[in-house]
Design goal:
The structure holds two protein chains of two kinds. Chain A is α/β, with parallel strands linked by helices. Chain A has four helices and eleven strands. Chain A has one domain. Chain A is about 30% helix and about 40% strand. Chain A has a six-stranded parallel β-barrel. The N and C termini of chain A lie far apart (about 55 Å). Chain B starts with 9 loop residues before the first helix and ends in an 8-residue tail after the last strand. Chain B is about 30% helix and about 20% strand. The N terminus of chain B is likely disordered. At the A-B interface, strand 1, strand 10 and strand 11 of A face helix 1, helix 3 and strand 2 of B.
Chain lengths: ~180, ~230
């Protein structure tokens, strides 16, 4: 009986190998071994997925489903697609809003609210673009230092002051969040 | 995050590529839109440009060009987009000041906010009857200091547009009136004395009559200023 189980397991492994080899190279490669430069296509939370909790990661992400909690993608871009519904405070390198967002966004580089986007919350980012037709209610603060602070690995005297002031702004923005 | 990738259908992958493709930001300004002559607004923008890092409350809807303009001046822009909701509130009958206060708190939460440097009301105040007008000013009063400027277009003609107009700024900071409505309704034609009563926390700094029949007002907040010199 044990031999039969081993045989079945081997069969399952072969089958799963075949499935993996038939899929594209990107998904066949273990996610942990991928680097940002290698993964051109971002991860996706599909329309039927609902997540509650803290979401972190090191690859670009598209949300077409529902997320409630917090999102931290400090080195990557986040897109809330047109069917995405997010109730969370967000921190990411770049954020594009095409769906609905309720919460605060801290963008290290830029935040774009597309014409289909609907956002209630506060934005802090060096660059913010709001397309005509987009719905927005909240505050927008463009902080040019945020990007410089984010890009500087070894803080100098002047930039460390900038970073700390940005951190204060960020903390204030997050603490006023509705999530 | 590998689990997020599993089973991703081809159409979703195509969507990913589409979403990540860099797009040229949409140019929102139409060439045929002429800015209106609004000298006091220009004065206000001159002040913002020299003062730097102003805190601006815009009661109107969000426009990309306004966000871009104030962003370039490093202003913090609070977009209230509350005109439609205020008009709904305006239309309700037999509402007391408590209900107004509660609704305004919901529509325009200002708890913990510092005083604003600039408040932009556009032509919204013409459409509020006196009790709601007063309630709005009372609601704003904690965010008003001696350094606060309030800009408003007050109708001086018998008729005015049937609903608040949409104003946005062009790249020079000049006001553009968008799609002016032909439908009209009677205007309250608030005289300056009435405005003083309705806005006890403000003094009229300057007023000028525009070609379109609007009286352009620049109000200055009373009391001590909040800006450090």
């Amino acid at each position: 009986m044990f031999d039969q189980v081993k045989q079945n397991m081997g069969k399952w492994n072969r089958q799963s190998d075949e499935e993996e080899s038939s899929s594209n190279v990107d998904t066949a490669r273990p996610a942990a071994s991928r680097t940002n430069s290698q993964s051109n296509s971002p991860a996706m939370i599909g329309p039927s997925i609902r997540i509650k909790g803290d979401l972190t990661g090191e690859e670009n992400l598209i949300i077409e489903g529902q997320v409630e909690g917090t999102i931290h993608l400090d080195k990557n871009d986040l897109t809330i697609g047109s069917s995405g519904r997010v109730k969370a405070n967000i921190q990411a390198k770049g954020v594009i809003v095409e769906g609905q967002v309720e919460g605060d966004i801290i963008g290290k580089e830029k935040v774009i609210i597309r014409r289909t986007g609907n956002m209630r919350g506060n934005i802090v980012a060096p660059r913010v673009t709001l397309e005509d037709g987009a719905m927005f209610k909240g505050s927008i603060e463009m902080e040019p230092e945020a990007r410089r602070g984010a890009e500087t690995e070894t803080p100098r005297t002047a930039s460390s002051k900038d970073v700390s002031s940005n951190a204060a702004v960020s903390a204030a923005a997050v603490s006023s969040g509705k999530v | 995050m590998g689990w997020l990738d599993s089973g991703r259908p081809a159409q979703l992958r195509q969507r990913c590529t589409e979403l990540l493709r860099p797009r040229k930001d949409i140019e929102t300004q139409k060439s045929d839109e002429q800015p209106i002559n609004s000298p006091l607004f220009k004065t206000l923008i001159d002040y913002v440009q020299t003062a730097g890092r102003c805190s601006v409350l815009d009661l109107g809807p969000a426009f990309g060009s306004n966000v871009t303009f104030f962003g370039e001046l490093r202003c913090k822009l609070q977009i209230a987009d509350c005109a439609a909701a205020l008009l709904e509130l305006n239309a309700r009958e037999e509402i007391g000041p408590e209900v107004y206060a509660r609704e305004l708190q919901r529509l325009l939460p200002l708890a913990g906010k510092h005083p604003f440097d600039v408040i932009l009301t556009w032509d919204l105040l013409n459409y509020l009857h006196k009790p709601l007008y007063t309630a709005l000013m009372t609601h704003l009063s904690p965010c008003v200091s001696g350094d606060t400027w309030l800009h408003a277009y007050i109708s001086s003609r018998r008729d005015m547009a049937a609903s608040p107009q949409q104003y946005r700024l062009n790249h020079e900071g000049r006001v553009v009136l968008m799609d002016a409505s032909a439908a009209t309704q009677p205007s309250p034609c608030y005289p300056q004395q009435t405005l003083r009563t309705l806005m006890p926390r403000f003094d009229v700094s300057r007023a000028t009559l525009l070609q379109n029949g609007m009286q352009e007002y620049l109000f200055k907040g009373q009391g001590r200023g909040h800006r450090q010199t």
